[in-house]
Amino acid sequence: MSDIIQLLPDHVANQIAAGEVVQRPASVVKELLENAIDAGSDSIKLIIKDAGKTLVQVIDNGKGMSTTDARLSFERHATSKIKTAEDLFQLNTKGFRGEALASIAAIAHVELKTKQENDDVGNAIIIEGSNVVSQDVVVTPKGTSVSVKNLFFNIPARRNFLKSNVVELRHVIDEFHRVALAHPDISFALYNNGNEAFNLPISNYRQRIVNIFGNKTNEKLVPVEEDTEVLKISGFVGKPEFAKKSRGEQYFFVNNRFIKSAYLNHAISSAFDGLLKTGTHASYFLNLTVNPLTIDINIHPTKTEIKFDDEHTLYALLRSAVKHSLGQFNIAPVLDFDR
Ligand code: ADP
Ligand code: MG
Predict the structure, then answer these.
(1) Neighbours of 6 (CB within 10 A)
(2) What is the C-alpha to C-alpha distance for residues 288 and 252, in angstroms, rounded to an integer?
(3) Contact 48, 192 (CB under 8 A)
(4) pLDDT at 339
(5) Can you tell me the distance from the alpha carbon of 257 to that of 93, in angstroms, rounded to the nearest whole number?
(6) pTM summary value
(7) Which atom of ligand 1 is nearest to the CA of 58?
(8) Which residues form a coiled coil (predicted)?
(9) What is the ipTM of this complex?
């Protein structure tokens, strides 16, 4: 008899986990922005170079980390956000898996600077491919800055798999939009290769949409509001005459988290039935608030899929709320001679 099973060393386990969490620069953007939000920041800056391939940096003004936590934050399954399995069903943070920083540090050069409000100095940590290169005391403002350089430097296959800068930048901006739309109460800026691409002040939801998609968007938005025991809906749908051939501006947020749901998307398109020209898609920006006990977010590491206890009820409520809004604002069918 001979034993052949071994426990994988941490850096190998981290690299495997990274394969699930980090697909491209935009995944790093998502994780770092979410951490900044969870830290209670009200001002968040995203700096990228070469579409994030050489640098993704997020600077926040949140609560920062202690010396010990700064080091621990890079350990796998190290999180301040949940303590028990029950906490998974009453999440009020974006993160909870404690995997993002460990995964990112396994496949990039990471520099963290962080300081808590009442401390005079903060901490700077450099980690490359899971190896701590240095940890020093540093003078830095309150909050946290995480720089992620040379993504996939130690996994050439993944690095080569990245798309052109144009495509990767598109993904980064999509991610930035999703996070910024979910949090109009936080100011966000995006700098791309040294140029300011977005500067979004704290505002209401309508203004945030307009600041992102342009002034012309304002007249296109029809408010949707509904408040029932199981579901609160708040947001906007685009007037049918502005519907586009592409599916671009379609956003669902459930409890402030961007999610993808073909099923709920169908609820919207069925509410628009007869109002859209063939081949066009309605835009929508809808926030759904549900009891956290009735959803499960822990389906996929990227947390963009969600399991609802009662999908059918949500579908019906959503469809009727949107229909009601379109009716109330006298939205008439678009004359469509192609039908
Ligand atoms: P998770 O977000 O799932 O907890 P992460 O690996 O993303 O896991 O982060 C690990 C921990 O590091 C967090 O739980 C949090 O305590 C701390 N942390 C990460 N980013 C920040 C930040 N920007 N500000 C303050 N604390 C942070
Ligand atoms: Mg996180």
Answers:
(1) 6
(2) 7
(3) yes
(4) 42
(5) 9
(6) 0.93
(7) 23
(8) none
(9) 0.99
What integer pLDDT is reported at residue 331 of this predicted model? 64
Residue 26: C-alpha distances to residues 51, 146, 162, 301, 319 (Å): 9, 15, 11, 14, 32
* Best of 21, 31, 38 for a ligand 1 pocket test (most atoms within 8 Å of beta carbon): 38
* Cα angle: 285, vertex 58, 151; to 5 degrees: 105
DSSP conformation letters of 108-140: SEEEEEEE-TT-SSEEEEEEETTEEEEEEEE--
Which residues have a beta carbon within 5 Å of ligand 2, which is an ion?
A: 35, 95, 100
pLDDT of 338 reads: 46
CA 104/CA 237 separation, integer angstroms: 36
176 CB within 6 A, ligand 1: no
Query: What's the confidence (pLDDT) of residue 332?
Result: 61
What is the Å distance from ligand 2's center to 147 Cα?
A: 15
Q: What is the pLDDT of residue 297?
A: 79
Phi/psi-derived region of residue 330, left when phi > 0, alpha when psi is between -120 and 50, beta in every other case = left
Number of C-beta neighbours around residue 248 at 10 A: 11
pLDDT tens per residue across span 218-271: 999 999 999 999 999 999 999 998 888 887 799 999 999 999 999 999 999 999
Ligand 1 contact, 36 CB (< 6 A): yes
- Confidence (pLDDT) at 89: 81
* C-beta 35 within 6 A of ligand 1: yes
- Reported as half-sphere exposure (CB side, CA atoms, 13 A), residue 14 has a value of 25
Q: pLDDT below 50 — which residues of the chain? A: 337-339
Q: Which structural domains are found in the chain, ordered by start?
A: 10-200 (3.30.565.10), 216-328 (3.30.230.10)
Maximum Cα–Cα distance for the chain, whole Å? 78
**Distance (Å, whole) CA 96 – CA 81:** 5
Q: How many CB atoms lie within 10 A of CB 288?
A: 25
In whole angstroms, give the CA distance from residue 52 to residue 163: 11
- The whole-number pLDDT of residue 247 equals 78
Which residue carries 């130690």 as its tokens?
A: 154
